[in-house]
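Working notes for the structural subgroup meeting. M.R. asked for a predicted model of this chain before we commit to crystallization trials. I am recording the input and output together here so anyone reviewing the notebook later can reproduce the run.

Input as submitted:
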Amino acid sequence: MIKFTVKTNFSVGDVHFYYIQSDGKNMLIDTGPFSEDTKKIFLNYVDLLKLDYVFLTHIHIDHSGMIKFLSKNSDARIFMSEKDIYLIEKKDEWLNALENLFISLGFSNNFVKSIKNVLNNLRSAIPVPDRYEILEKQDLPSNLGIDYIKTPYHSQSDVIYLIDRFAFSGDTLLRNIFQTPLIDVDYNNCLQRYNNYKAFCKSLYKLKKLNNYTVMPGHNDYIISVNDTITHYVNKMLNRLIKIKDKINKMSLEDLAEIVTKDKNDIHIKYLKASEIQFFKDFLNDPNELEDALKYLDLFNKVTEGLYKLALSITKN
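Returned structure, recorded in token form:
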């Protein structure tokens, strides 16, 4: 296995993707961003004529930017989640539905116009491959020794690939990073908002099986453990929620995001902060769902008790 690392302009930092050989077959987990640096890696270190498979954890630009290049310069089969294929094949439908969602959540016309333009540019920056296959609708060759679990919450398409006791987690498990669950429409019903919080709680149950795996994350070089990563994430969420506890039920998402965003002109960061706040609101509406998941993982006693109680006190005010 070879880990490749490429710098990005995103706050999450460098991104990793992985080249693996298994049973005589050559595979990639993610592709890195679309850049000259990434292209040089493929031309100098990967025999594209012998590349057999490409598996994507999700199609955010820093993880999937080279899929069109690979579809043109190799015969590799490219697999992605059906949720990512929705974004590729129905981008305009998605953007229009997202616009309606932002309006329903009370965002101003200026914000909606600006963030729609930003998200359109981000999606358009991912070159669409000439060919691809739906991960969930294919039987993967058994000789590859590859399996996967779907762990949506950061995005609806998050996938973790399991190969030889290694878990390639994309953005699902990251050390000391609160990976924002993004406000979005539900790809199964674009008239509804996707509830990242409920998806996060359900995904936690699936992560228990990873305790015996070595996790290979998409950012940062390692995680200490699955349990440590989950506990850090929940404590980080509670800390951030408590900082806005006096305002979360009194201000709009947009106004509150404006307050906690340092660069007031960065509409994308403002969107990320608004997404965090919506996640916090969903937690406050049903805190038992997270508590049950953490107890299943034997992690509830690892969450800072004072933080949890203080966060829940918001619902009583």
